[in-house]
Amino acid sequence: MIPAFPSLTFPRPTETSLTDGFGAVVALLDAGDLRAALERFDRERRTLDSWASLVYLQFSQDTTSKASKAERDYADKLGPKATAHEVTIKKRLLADADRAALVEIAGAHVVQLWERDVTTFDSRIESALEEESRLCSEYTALLASARITVAGETVNLSGLAPWLENADRRVRHEAEQARWAFFAEHGDTLDTLYARLVTLRTEMARTLGFGSYMPLGYRRMRRVDYGPDQVARFREEVLTHVTPLVARLLEERRAEMGWDHLCYWDENFIDPKGNPKPAGGYDLLIERAQTMFDRMSGGLGPFFSEMVNGGYLDLKNRDGKAGGGFCTAFPDVGMPFIFANFNGTHGDISVFTHEMGHAYQNWRSRDLPSIDELWPTMEAAEIDSMGLEFLTWPHMELMVEDGAADRFRRMHLIGSLSFLPYGVCVDHFQHEVYARPEMTPAERHETWRRLERLYMPWRDYGDIAYPAKGGRWQAQGHIYKSPFYYIDYTLALCCAMQLWLKSRRDEPGAMAAYEGLCARGGSAPFTTLVAGAGLVSPFEPGALADVVREASGVLGVTAA
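Below the sequence we write its predicted C-alpha cells.
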C-alpha cells in the first residue's frame, strides 16, 4: 500500500546516524558477507535519498518558508558527509579481490558507475560541495523572487508565459521587456554567482587531479560510454541538419504573418491563430489525462490514478514556488512526484507529459535491485520523458482546446526542432566557459552571443538590451545548477523523435519499445539502452537525417 504523500516522513539523518548506518555496511564487509553488505548499503542510500528528495521538494514548493530553507541548508551541509561515506564504501568494494562476485551481485553497469563515482569526491572538497549547493539554492531563490508586471498584472517568471505567447505582438514585446528588465536589474548578482560557481568547480576539479572541470563534470553526470568528442560531433550534426530547417520555418512564419523581420519575441508564437491552449483548467486536465493514459497500452492509466489519489502531484503555479518543472522520487516507498507550474499555455501539456514520462519510468523500474538502477543516466532518462510527449500525440484532442489538436501537434514538432539548436548552444557555451574559467563576465556574455549567432543566426533581440549583449543564458538554470546537463535533452530528443517516427508507422510497436525502455531503467549505459529500444545512437553519423526528413515532409518545408 502506497502511503499518501502528505503523510510521508523519513528519518532525519545526523552525522552520527550516517556513521552508524554506513558503519554497519563496513562491519558486514569485515565479516566477509558481501551480499548482505550490498543489501544494507542499498537500504541506507534509499532512506537517505527519500529524505533528501522530500527536503528539496518542500523547499521548491515554498521558497519563502524559513523552516523549509533551514532544512534545505541542513541537507546541503550533510550531503557531502553522506557522499564521503558512500565513496569510502564504493572504493572498498571496488578494491575487493573478488571482482567477479561483486559484478554478479551488483551488476556490471552499477560497478561501472561506481568506478566513475569514486573519482568525483574527496574529503578535501566537502566544504566546496556544500558551498556549491548553497550558491545553487541562492540562484533558485533569486529567480523565484521575481515579480514581473505586464499588461497591468504582476506575476512570477513562470506566470509570465501567457504574455510571452500572446497573439498581440506588442504584448509579447512588453512581456519580454519586463522579463529581461528583471535580469538586467540582477545582472551583476547573477554574474557574480556564476563566476563563483565556475571558480569553485574548477578548484574542486584541480584538487581531484583533473586539468579542468570538464572531465569531472562528465563523471559527475555518470557518463561511461561517450565523451566531449562525441558530443561535439553531435552539435555539428544539429548545426548541419537542423539549423537550416529551423531558419526556413521561421522565414516562412515571418512571411505568413507579414512581419518585416522576425524578432526574439516572435519565435515562440508559432501558430498564426494563436498557440493552442489547454482544454480547460486544472481539474479538467487531470480528468482528461486519466482518460488519455487509460487509452494507452501498458500501465500508464493505473499508475496515474495512483499518483492523483496519493497526492503525488503539485502542478499549480503560485507565489513563492520555485519555477520550472521536475520529477523526483522516494525510493523507500517506490513512488515518484511531479512538480510543475501550470500557467494556462500549451506548455502545461508538454511539461506535464514530459514529467509524467520520468515518473512512469521510475515507477516501472522501482523493483530493480539497486538504487543505482532506479533512474538511468540523464540523457537516457530524457528519452522516457520526451518520448511520452510524442507518444501522447494521438490523444491530444482530449488535452487541448476544441479543434486545435493538429495545430498543437504541429507546434510541438516545430518547437522540438527549434529546441535542438538552442540546446546544443547551451552545451557549447559551458564547454567554452570551463575551458577558460578565468573569463570575465563580459567575455562570458560575448561568448554566448557568438555561439548564439552560430546556432541560431536568426535571433534578433531588437531593443531589448540585456539579452542583446549576451545575457540570455542567465535564465537557463541548468547552466548554474547542473553543469553539462543540458546536452542530455538534445541527445534524448534525437531518440524520442525516432520513437515518434516509429509510432507513425507502427504505434503498438513504438509503445512496446517505450515500455521496455522504461522498465530497464538505469540497468545499462545510454547507448546500450538506446540500441535495446531499436533506436539509432545520436553519435552515429546521420542519426538526425530520417527524423529531419520526416518532419520536413509533415511540415511541408525543406531545409534551405
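The chain has 25 helices and five strands.
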